[in-house]
Amino acid sequence: MKDRVTPSDEAPALPGDTGTPLAVTDALGRVVAWSADAARLTGLGAGDAVGRPVADLLDTHPHWRTSGADEWRGTLGVRRPEGRRRRVRGRAYCLLRGAAEGPLWLLVQEPGTVSRAEQVSPTAEALADWVLTGSPVAVAVYDTGMRCVRQNEAMRRLTGVPDEERIGQGLSAAVTGADVGEWEARMRRVLDTGRAEEGFLLSGRTVRDPDHDRRFTVSASPLRDRAGHVVGVCATMIDSTEQYRARERLALLNEASTRVGSTLDVMRTGQELTDLVVPRLADFVCVDLVEALLTGEEPPPGPVHGVVLRRVAHRSVREGTPEAVVRVGEVDWYTANSAQARCLATGRSALYRTMREAISWIAEDPARLAKVKEYGIHSWMIVPVRARGTTLGVAMFLRSRRGEPFEAEDLSLAEELVARAAVCLDNARRFTREHMAALTLQRSLLPQRLPEQSAVHAAFRYLPGAPELGVGGDWFDVIPLSGARVALVVGDVVGHGLQASATMGRLRTAVRTLADVDLAPAELLTRLDDLVIRLATESETGAEGIAPGDTGATCLYAVYDPVAGHCCLARAGHPLPAAVWPDGTAELLELPGGPPLGLGGLPFESIDVELPAGSLLALYTDGLIESRQRDAATGVHRLLRELTGGSGSPDALCDRVSRALFPDHPADDAALLLARVQRLDVDRVATWDVPAEPEAVSVARARAVGQMREWGLETAGYVTELVVSELVTNAVRHGGTPIELRLIRDRSLICEVFDGSSTAPHLRRARVFDEGGRGLMLVAQLTQRWGTRQTPGGKLIWCEQPLP
User: Fold this and answer.
1) 382 near 396, Cβ under 8 Å?
2) What whole-number distance in Å separates Cα of residue 238 and Cα of residue 394?
3) What is the mean pLDDT of residues 175-199?
4) Who has the most CB within 10 Å: 82, 110, 315, 634?
């Protein structure tokens, strides 16, 4: 340090000035001349002072440079090398304001002492020194022109801008970015209002880290002189980038737990993941899964060695996702050396921060390379989609618009997000597998096509309910009966899922079995009710996972006779059927309600309705008329409206009703069965009364042979003659009066013998020397099928033989 001042270092004095010249500063506040008095006052020679900011030597803010006036008065803080401090009165004069390099300022010490009010305590001076040198909080002081006049060491380290480039400059000299203008406007508001602005989140880049966006928490407070006037702004800046990123990662993970996996649909779950992370983590994301996942099949455990995946979702910051090589739902092919193939084979993630790191595998795929060049993709993350030790696919994250590359923290976040989505995808796969199994079971239990018969022209529609509820237990059936009759059945099992489908299958089988016995509708429902009660008892005592009382159903059973034109119906807690008459009017058929199946102890009743030829019966389940949008009464009204005037085919009417009543996303299964009844022509039915005497057998046989000749069925006459002889003989010998013989020419030749006895015959094997007991055996051997059914006045024995 120099201990004497040369004449050339002396500061000039102003004429008539009573003060002691100390220094001359340039427009930036740097010392260009240092007087001997200044050296004695501060203990620093000119060699140590010239070129340094005057604020470092005389503790003051050079307000005279920015106030716009030509003169300034205030106090100067003097720092001695040995640590002593004092304050003196000072004045600054502007020199050469019009100079090209800016004005010069002369700083002088005025005579007199500083008042006690103007004194600064040693503690305050120490605090000021600590703020400017030792505080970890970055601080910068701006004048009223929003130019920086002072910054502390923490600010220099944070921004990487030295005083020479910062003093006299605006905020943009330290931070660049879109938020700088907003923050400067807030600082100006501090100058105008005198109120502080706190906690603003400033996003931008600094000289120290020009390649990455950083987040700063900034605050601004007004600086006031002793008169209370705002003379500047003190701004603090804290680098909160890591805290911001941690909050962002935590927010993404929290959102993932609620937004990803909201449904049990694989495609939807993949799309939810991509929607979540674009643009907050990546500019483009795609999810490709193995084919087995979409069909619910079990992928092989461990890594996947194939490179053919199906795109289930992608998302981009650009409209239309132009970066994608394939569309959603299409197959994506990867080369064996690609990052995706290695990720699938090893089950480990890969991070490529730059194009140079990824060029080895991207160059092998011309289509992807073209996309990379066109959209400026520069950073990649490849993450395997794994759950429960099984690789389900791969997720790829890209950056193109965002300048900074992916970092290790981004990869960790992506892995966590994909891991959470993978569990949801695997759950969706498992649900898909179970749902497909239940649908397969349900389809196998429902009729795929209706049987051929002449009584009705029928059509049906079946709409499964919402997948998340599982398959339902709705069913329908068309069952051919003896005598050209047909049974129409619609039922609904309580609940959803495999248990409901299995119960539905058992009930449908039971109905078909009981229908073969030719039980009346009310009697059939009684037997079915007993079966449901037994199923419920089994679930209470032995079936694991089935809650007591879960077994229950409703059912509607109808038998239509095309010869008589009558329909007998009974229901067990099921919605009323609708009828459309030949004139086009539609109405509900009033049937006794009957309890649902499974309650027991209550009777079922049936009614007999005459249906003119061309009438239409509509049987359905409650899912057709009830939904979240409407109640049952409204649904019935709409159904009748759609059926009114319905003269088209049952299939066309099914389409019409389906469009009007089936909701887009039904909560419950819905079944609809439409049957237009038909009458057999009178010339296809022959009926004779038979006297209860042995001689009547030959007469009945002759009439049957004559009718066969009239119908042109002479080749079947021998068998018919024998069958009629055996059945009429049994009725005469063992039955009661009256006795009636009827032949029906339908799709087969039907022979029926009615008698007034309710005793049913039984097939038995006659011994060698028995004189009788061979009649029914012969009938069973000569015809396709035979049977007996009870009627209100007795019994009826029937048999069928194919037409020649």
Assistant:
1) yes
2) 39
3) 91
4) 315
